Amino acid sequence: MTVNGVHVARDVEPRQHLVDFLRYELQLTGSHVGCEHGVCGACTVRVDGKLVRGCLMLAAQADGCRIETIEGLSESGQLSHLQRAFRSENALQCGFCTPGMLLTAHALLERVARPSTPEIREAIGANYCRCTGYHAIVRAVARAAELRTGLNATDAERATADGSYIGRTVIRPQTARLVAGRGTYTDDVFLPRLAHVAFVRSPHAHARMTNINTADAKALAGVIAVVTGRELATHCDPWVGVLKNYAGMKSAPQYPLAIDKAVWMGEPVVAVVAESRALAEDGCARVEITWEPLPPVVDAEAALGPGATLIHPELGDNLVLEAKVNAGDVEAAFREADVVVRETYETGRHTVVSLEPRVVLADYAAADETLTVYHSGQAPYMLHDILSRHLRIPEHRVRVINKDVGGSFGLKIHTYPDEIATCALAVMLGRPVKFLADRIESFQTDIHSRDHRVTAEVAVRRDGTITAMRLDDLAPVGPFSMYPRSSVVESGQILRTTPGPYKLRNYAARGRVVLQNKTPMSQYRAVGHPVAALVMEAMVDRVARELNMDPVDVRRRNLLTSDMYPYSAPSGLFFEKLSHEESLDSVLALANYPSLCKERDSLRARGVYRGLGLCVFIDLTVPGAQTYGTGGARISSQDGTTIRLEPSGKLTVISSITEQGQGTDTILAQVAASMVGVAMEDVRVVTGDTMVTPYGGGTWGSRGAGIGGEATLLTGKALKENILKVAAVVLDVEALTLDVRSGQIVDARTGEARMPLSELGRIAYFRPDTLPKDFQSELTVTRHYVPRHQPLAYTNGAQLSYVEVDPDTGFVKLLGHWVAEDCGRIINPMLVDEQVRGGVAHGLGDALWEHCVYDAQGQLLTTTMMDYLVPMAAEMPDIWVSHVETPTSYSEGGFKGAGEGGVAGAPGAVLNAVNDALLPLGARITRVPITPEVVLRALGKL
Amino acid sequence: MKPAPFDYHRPTSLAETFDLLERYGDDGRILAGGQSLVPTLNMRLATPRAVIDINRLPGLAEIRATLDGLVIGALARHDEVEASALIREHAPLIAAAMPHVGHAAIRARGTFGGSLALADPAAELPACVVALDATIRVANRRGTRAIPAAEFFQGVYTTALAPGDVIIEVLIPRAEPQWRDGFDELARRNGDFALAGLAARVCLVGGAVRDARLVFFGVGNAPVRARQAEAALKAAGDVRAAQRALATELQPPGDIHGSPELRRHLAGVLLHRVVGSLLGPAS
To answer: Which of A153-157, B84-88, B136-140 has the lowest mean pLDDT?
Structure first.
């Protein structure tokens, strides 16, 4: 065959598919593997000019064919318009889908010179992207079409006159690599003597192992080791996912491989290490386990009922935690209410489906007892600490490296037994071992979330004032509380935040977190908020219907107003300053709400059922030590940034914040460039290496800007001061009279250039002998930051969804989605927009499609991407974003978080929109996902 | 998710293919487009001893018109069928169905014969060939034979193919001018398998329904010809009557994507929409 024009002749194993051949034999790692069953499109390549799924064609079949990959198409320049447009529209975040997406878009543009939006959506609807929500990709393809047909486009904006990039849209520098297929994800790392591990996993939800026979597997050529849970436990201590700040919480010890008993379908029980993944799987097929099935605990109510099977008998029951909130006089408020509205809502189990699965490559060097771990993760120091303690390796002999990460969204901040087992196996075997979860394993073992049954009740006055709320949340979370962040935070967030945007002071809530034999649940993007906002906003719409009021008016009457801040909510939350009224106004204006209402009403008269749904939300960002630290979890809430002035005047920014596609690298560079006074292109950012960066928490909980941005701001300021000290000595003037602008030392008053930074660097580094003897330059500076003035920086926003429901089929079409988001001071508006859009897409998935379905025996039925439906481009609406800026005054930068608000409001907005559409038909829905079945049952048609 | 080991053979003649099929028996699997077989191999849901790649058998990818109708070679790829002017002219039903078959990259590899041989009850093409009264020509060591589409699909992934058989081509009778074709399906997302789908043909003479073929997919173990609904349509010329008949004759299975009731209901909606539009606004 020829690959990118080069003749290639290899013997291949018949079973190797084309994309594995390209990646592992030719080390062309630009084509990615996301599902291996032809759904996700990440492996798309061209064979004899046609787009083909590289995972659905055997390498042997490509004999004699002409193969083209992202690498070759990039080098030949065929994709340059698209690549440029993808970068300028930020149509990629993690970049993992991007090579396949580019090839798919390219094929469309070859066929249709100026495709319409629906044509673009249909074409790229073959490729899954978890990051963007597709809006930016659609725009980029349209823009590339313009570029190809001669229309011009502008690229990166330049700094403003004062040299600040803060508040400016800047194109992410690292996307240049990603659009060319030159990202380096963890599975793109090749080490000598690399071994591969696969796991035998429990086929039962709950079962005892009475015998494990590994002899056949061990005898297989190419198998290096077969290890049981009991054997591995001698190398790794178990963990318990309990946080002390949740009184009364309990869970059981969890081992990297189950011992004696498996407690969910998919739990790893035996590890097989072999020379290749395929051989490791062959070994797994030869492990014989005698299973004695136990009664599975599936339903949450039943788990708490009398006589329930106990998953961990030593705990005494299946209750992880019962938490309560009581504020004000709830009973009195309900007694005095004119109207009481009560409803029970169910939100379906959801999972993350980052396109790059979980992957870890652990290398143990016995000679110096050092463990190096390449990990697709978000919190390298957290993993570092866990590996050190549980594998009993001194902290300074562990190193965790994050290469490019293909999406994370909270998936990759947890302790997964198969990942810890992989690291322990590397130590046992003294050689590098890699584990790459395949898509079925991902569905079975990645954390799930959002499985809640919430009963809510509100007391209302006739004028629409909501005076009190009762809430009861039942949250089954799987067989263990996850470690070290636990599995109670989602329910805790629902309890604390549900009435959050509103003035009501009387609030009583109970949350019960329950063990069951399903995949463990834990924190995932927008923890608890999508459920909380859905429940609250659905209740507000119910109130509006009951009182025959406008939903907007009910909100205006009850929302916290600008004169109420700072505000302590009855559930214990503290709001420094929020902008509910402005955000609501903003989203209504953005969508031209009155005209949409008019359109809806006129179509309704013609039998077309459209609906509008609002969702006001709050969102937790910038968590301080009160989130995990006080619970005893060793997760840093402080972060640090080092900035080094290089001799040439460039900056190297080294931060403990990590990058998974959000653009944290870029915003840190923007802040550093702005604070020091250099151009963006003179800054490079290093993250994700615990041997290199300052200590810190990484990226989760929308903390990159609020904590990492502030740490970088403080570092940049300090470095600038140090630079000016050197300049003052060299120029023999007062430092106060100088400034740094555009890479030059200038006179602060006149702006006159005095010396380029490269000259300053030359003197400071190479000719310090020319400086006074008592002067030492300090051109590498580190500063740290942790929020201290409030436990969390709450943000807020409002969303509006416009849908059409087909009452015959039950299908819901998303017509448009609008978001007003207030994340404080904005560093890069384009990146905030894209965080919001990507988040909305996750929420729309919650609303309509995504659902981990189990049968009564605890068997997960949705283990492929044909069964677990993620949002694809053809069904997604355009998503429009506006901004309200309410900076926090507790930090110098004023930055809060932007990563999760998009998710928080989307399901509630869609549910309200669907119910608005169904209103004339007398139907109401109280659950997500809103499938055709759900709609038709609500309509009484099934 | 890597396949179990297998031998790979790429015969260049039918004779060689028959040899291999004989040699491996049930342990040999024919690989055509591979868009269903390869994921099944990847997931180890199938672990054949040998994969027999027929993609390079000569002469099986042709689409041609004959006096009797249209011949579609078993190895014609979906994108070739989709782009074929002959198909559009002589088998508009298939042309209408093609855009619903997976996505472009799937259609670039998947084959017409492969889709029929797989016999996925939710797939579009089996329903189309049943609606079109097509004939499936099959070869084995002893010769060739023709199997009417109506007899070909026997159950979930089950066909009238016997061990050693290879689909050669599909014959679609020449379209007669009175027949109108309609196709639609309801899938959760573009490119997904349908919750319910309908390949419909109606013979209209002087505004009256002289004959009809209503073949549903995604609502049974195989393509389902709704004979009672067809009869109701012919008798009354009335879509509502056909819908009522359909509701009693369909017995769809349920799965995570939809209950039997949902699939039955959606089939009725499709009947109304597709046949309604074929009969024109008057009905």
So the answer is: A153-157
